[in-house]
Specification:
2 copies of one chain form a homodimer.
Chain A (H helix, E strand, L loop, with lengths): L23 H15 L32 E2 L2 H6 L6 H8 L9 E3 L4 H14 L2 E5 L20 E5 L6 E5 L4 E5 L4 H8 L4 E2 L12 H7 L16 E8 L2 E4 L12 H5 L8 E8 L1 E2 L3 E9 L2 H13 L6 E5 L1 H6 L8 E9 L5 H13 L3 E4 L11 H12 L4 H4 L4 E7 L7 H20 L4 E10 L2 E11 L6 H21 L15 H7 L2 H14 L13
Parallel strand pairs in A: 2-4, 3-4
Antiparallel strand pairs in A: 1-2, 5-6, 6-10, 7-11, 8-9, 8-10, 12-14, 12-15, 13-14, 16-18, 17-18
Helix pairs in contact in A: 3-14, 8-10, 13-14
Chain lengths: 540, 540
Amino acid sequence: MANDTANKTLKYWGWGYAEDGLSADQAKSLLNTISEGFGIEPSRDGAFPTMDAITLPTPRIEAPANLSKICTSDTHDRVVHSFGQSQPDSIRIYNGDFEHAVDLVAYPKTSADIAAIYDWAGNKNAAVIPFGGGSSVVGGVTSDVGCNFNGVISVDMTRMNKVLEVDPISRAARIQGGARGPELEAQLKPHGLTLRHFPQSFEHSTFGGWVATRSGGHFATLYTHIDDLVESTTTVTPVGNIVSRRLPGSGAGPSPDRFMMGTEGALGIITEGWARLQGRPTYKATAGFRFTDFFDAARAVRMVSQAGLFPANLRIVDGTELKVNGAGDGSFALMVVSFESADHPVDTWMARAEECCLDVGGVIDVDWRNNPEANLQGAVGAWRTAFIRMPYNREQLTPRGIISDTFETSTTWDVFESFYHAIKDATQAAIRDVTGHDGAVSCRFSHAYPDGPAPYFAFHAPGNPGGDGTVMLEQWQEIKTRCSDALIANGGTITHHHAVGRDHHKWYEQQRPALFGNILGDAKKRLDPKGILNPGVIVG
Amino acid sequence: MANDTANKTLKYWGWGYAEDGLSADQAKSLLNTISEGFGIEPSRDGAFPTMDAITLPTPRIEAPANLSKICTSDTHDRVVHSFGQSQPDSIRIYNGDFEHAVDLVAYPKTSADIAAIYDWAGNKNAAVIPFGGGSSVVGGVTSDVGCNFNGVISVDMTRMNKVLEVDPISRAARIQGGARGPELEAQLKPHGLTLRHFPQSFEHSTFGGWVATRSGGHFATLYTHIDDLVESTTTVTPVGNIVSRRLPGSGAGPSPDRFMMGTEGALGIITEGWARLQGRPTYKATAGFRFTDFFDAARAVRMVSQAGLFPANLRIVDGTELKVNGAGDGSFALMVVSFESADHPVDTWMARAEECCLDVGGVIDVDWRNNPEANLQGAVGAWRTAFIRMPYNREQLTPRGIISDTFETSTTWDVFESFYHAIKDATQAAIRDVTGHDGAVSCRFSHAYPDGPAPYFAFHAPGNPGGDGTVMLEQWQEIKTRCSDALIANGGTITHHHAVGRDHHKWYEQQRPALFGNILGDAKKRLDPKGILNPGVIVG
């Protein structure tokens, strides 16, 4: 029953499978870089509790006969399903805070299973938390739902992980909501097709989770969110199913798909959908450019974004972020540009993008010409290696009392520079006030649009020396609050692609138009009249 | 007070300004083509009623003092605002059927004016019909709202027609909802920027109308609907304003903009919005290809759509449609491909698109190489001329008893051929059953997506010989019903970009997920608790 793939066991204390993580050398290097570069030192050398040491509350609810075969109250299952991959969740696990652990984990295999879970949970007044890959970094699957429920059941969708149909003519596939990235790509591969939606969480997130949270993939322009790749959706709600038509485009009233996307399990579970696919790219090129001024790099992104070239990758990373990740010395910002195509050589596209970069002072880091390995070379390659490894860092940092987190947003180009300073300064000030030390606050662009970038901020800060994890959690919360206040005050979005979850809800309520909040509340009453679905998420 | 621009008076019996239309020769040529090509003959030589001959019902409501300055019950204003540009509206005007004429026309200048109209109309139980350019071809502004209201007021938005702000850095502008296409482009031009959203109705439709109806522009790929060009919206509803943030991209819950887009005035009036702009294109190329087989042309569209080239134009027109419009002899289908850019030469893009077309049997109609006038030459040029003139045809045909209409949809590539035959056959059978004659039923693609085309059907049919317009209206309704039934039965959308209006509502209710219909109904109760806004549209 355990949440395994290919006989691997999911880690309960951090990212990925139990057997995966940083090597001892990599962990040492990470700590050294943060220490030497920014004076951020470990305040302790703690460890996550072992499974043996974890005692969970007795489950408050027990699966009825008709659901017993797909439900478990196994301790490992309950622990893994009680948290996502956020900084506060990591601290809670470190602290052994399992007071709000889910009571049951269900692994439905069919929509009928889900409907039966809803019926039973509704009668029991148990909260239902949909669970895809469990990689939410915003408390989307965190099981502390308050005291209004008689229990919490996590609905793990990963048994519904099939690609049900492939339409090679239209290049589309019907994919079940519980299919994780590698699983769905493996099923598409024999057809010569690919979804090519690669969020950083790709390995541990699901198609349904992507749609429910409006996830951002590796396409830095054009198809930035899964939204753009969705042709139709099927959502199972407590009062019935919402099934939209397969339509390449439509102007018939407001889009039902666009309404369900981003509801984060609060209105139903997205059990399947038709997704638009790509041919497997045969032409690729990657180039890297260094800029001494981050804002020059930003100008290059703007020029390329507005040129109508639609690169697959178009990212910049500031000097601090390169330094934190051992990919630079802090003296330059890096821009990475990639084009890919299953149809045609991309040289003309890349040549024009390069002109834009050189025009505003970029210096070639790695040359793309006749260089299929460019993505592995120079600062570009070093950054790529660090990026892939990044999700494993936190399990090293939390036990050592080092707070690390990221948040992402978007803003328009006209105000970008002042926005950047406001957010960065607010973050640095919050870290100083809370910890008494400077933090390492950095920025990259995860996605870019003709009208503005999606800046992605990261910070590392030294948690309270010698303190326990409770104080660390409070410190994180204060820093998070002040960063989020700054995002909202400066006109940004509380999230560009990480989703709202429980952690962003307060600011989401400030951001969304109040009357639209009422509409969502009415929809919640309509689709989830007993209010059991992912309480506290999207609809407060 | 009349709805004029630059001292021109709007025609009440058809498209455009009173002074515009087909020349006598052009009208004769149109009738000859239909007669000689398809045996469709005029059954009468009637005329629309003159303004002198029109008697309207006495207005049932009178503007209160606070609104009297912005309201009128002038006959011309009332007639123009009681109908859109649909075939049934044209017949109703021909028939002199002004029983349901609007009682009042209001020309608000501010959001406060609109709020005052809502308050007053709510108290009077008067229906409020938002009116942009009045070019709805689906009954979106048609004033027959049933017998539950004490009056009808048309809210003409064209006094709110300013571009309020231009942000040249982000390439975006804040545009009032009542700005017609030419007005808003004229205001953007000094900034070197353009929205480049050119629906066929461009001259007589407004930015707010486009957003409310999810209009389709001239971009045949990528930015097909106005949806894609909208950064934020402001909607004035009877219970307050819904204002979204300017965000290039966001994943914070379901998009409030995407929910308001397509509500067609049933939930509020979109008074302004920020729109994403383009640089004015300096590089352009147009090519034309002839195909003996329409489905080969469709295959070429699919190849180009899936190649990631994103042409500005990518349309095919079948032999019948070319023949009806005097741009071909019926023996070939035409494909038009255009690329445009403000940034870079488009030769590489066009060369690859051309390869796709030639690969599936296309023959060059006009060559794009070193040919800036290609769009004016060959069948491409002939079609272009006919296309621009097309909206003026109906005022020639209705008085002569010739039924002419269009409808558009979308479907996926895998089923396109069978879909095409099913729709075309259903239309032809309906025309035969209803009129006893064959019609001219044709198809083009208005827009194209990687996963499917947006087929646009047109038909001409001989109305009842010697009959009056009442029978012609019934004939049209029966044909329309059977075409619409076929669209829904075959998995299409009832509209790709013409909107739902009153004419499509019955089929829209079949198409949209039932629970989503409930959500829209709840939103209507929330935002328009007295149910006065555009009754019968979107929310039944």
